[in-house]
Design goal:
Helix 2 packs parallel to helix 4. The longest helix is centred in the N-terminal third of the chain and has 14 residues. It contains 12 helices and 9 strands. The model has no long low-confidence stretch (mean pLDDT about 95). The radius of gyration is 17 Å and the shape is globular. The strands form 2 sheets. Strands 4-3-1-2-9 form a 5-stranded parallel β-sheet. Strands 6-5-7-8 form a 4-stranded parallel β-sheet. It is an alpha/beta fold.
C-alpha cells in the first residue's frame, strides 16, 4: 500500500511537530490535520476518556477517504491506538514505537541514561519504559512534565516561565541524561530550550523524525515535487491552531 492522502490527529497543536516532518518529506499528496483543541490536554484524562476521544476522532476523519492516519499524540498512542486500529478501515500509526526505533538507531549503548518526558498519562502507562526494556535499555527514568503542554499551547517557546518550569521538573532527576525522549508531540516545539538546559546538549528523540523513519520502513512512499495540500481543522479555536502552525512551519515557506 502506498499512502498519498493521510490524516494527522493530535489533542491540540503539538502534532504540528510531526506534521512538519511529513510535509518536508514530500512523500504525500494531501495531509489533513485535526486538533481536538476544545479538550486539550489529554494527558490528565482517564484511560477510558482518552480512548473515547480517540474513537471520536475517527468519526471526524470519515469524510476524507484517508489512506493512513498518524496519531501524533503519545497519550493516545498509549491508551487509544489499539481501539482505533480495530475500528479504522485504514492503517493507524502511533508515535511511541517509532520513537523507540529512532532511539535504537541513535543510541547503541544499552547502559545509556535515557530520560523520558511526557504527560502524566503517558508516563503512568510505562509503555516507553517497557518497550525500551525489551530492547535492553534499563537505565530509564520518566518525568511527567504536563505543564509543558499548556505552555506550548500558549505559544511560549522560551523565557522565564519555561525556564522555571524546566527547573522545577528536571531537578527531580539526579543524573545527566545521554538522551531525552520527547514523549509528547508538544515538546519538540520547546526542544531548543530543553537542550540548552543541559550544558552537554543530550541527544533529543522526537516523534516527527521518528515517524518518517518508521513510515519508510513500513510502506512504499511516493516522491512528489510539490509540498502536499494541507488542511487544518480543530474542535475549537481554529485560528489559534493556525497561528501556532504558522510559527512552527514558517521555515518551510
Amino acid at each position: 500500500m502506498t499512502p498519498e492522502r493521510i490524516g494527522v490527529f493530535d489533542s491540540g497543536a503539538g502534532g504540528i511537530s510531526v506534521l512538519k516532518n511529513l510535509i518536508e518529506s514530500r512523500n504525500f499528496k494531501e495531509i489533513i490535520y485535526y486538533g481536538d483543541t476544545a479538550r486539550v490536554p489529554y494527558g490528565v484524562k482517564s484511560p477510558e476518556t482518552i480512548e473515547h476521544y480517540a474513537l471520536e476522532a475517527l468519526d471526524f476523519f470519515k469524510s476524507f477517504s484517508l489512506d493512513l492516519l498518524v496519531v501524533a499524540c503519545n497519550t493516545v498512542s498509549a491508551y487509544g491506538l489499539e481501539a482505533m486500529q480495530r475500528v479504522a478501515p485504514y492503517p493507524v500509526i502511533g508515535v511511541i514505537e517509532p520513537g523507540i526505533l529512532a532511539l535504537k538507531n541513535e543510541i547503541r549503548n544499552r547502559d545509556a541514561k535515557i530520560l523520558i518526558l511526557g504527560t502524566k498519562a503517558t508516563i503512568k502507562s510505562q509503555l516507553y519504559q517497557k518497550l525500551l526494556a525489551k530492547e535492553g535499555y534499563h537505565n530509564t527514568f520518566g518525568i511527567a512534565t504536563s505543564l509543558f503542554v499548556p505552555i506550548v499551547e500558549e505559544s511560549i517557546f522560551q523565557g522565564a516561565i519555561l525556564e522555571s518550569t524546566m527547573q522545577h521538573y528536571f531537578s527531580t532527576y539526579a543524573h545527566i541524561p545521554d538522551a531525552i525522549i520527547l514523549g509528547c508531540t508538544h515538546f519538540p516545539l520547546i526542544a531548543d530550550a530543553i537542550a540548552e538546559f543541559y550544558s552537554h546538549k543530550p541527544l533529543l528523540i522526537h516523534s516527527g523524525k521518528a515517524i518518517m523513519q518508521y513510515l519508510h520502513s513500513s510502506y512504499t512512499l511516493k516522491n512528489f515535487t510539490d509540498k502536499p495540500n494541507l488542511s487544518f481543522y480543530a474542535s475549537d479555536s481554529l485560528s489559534k491552531l493556525e497561528e501556532i502552525a504558522k510559527i512552527w512551519l514558517n521555515p518551510l515557506k
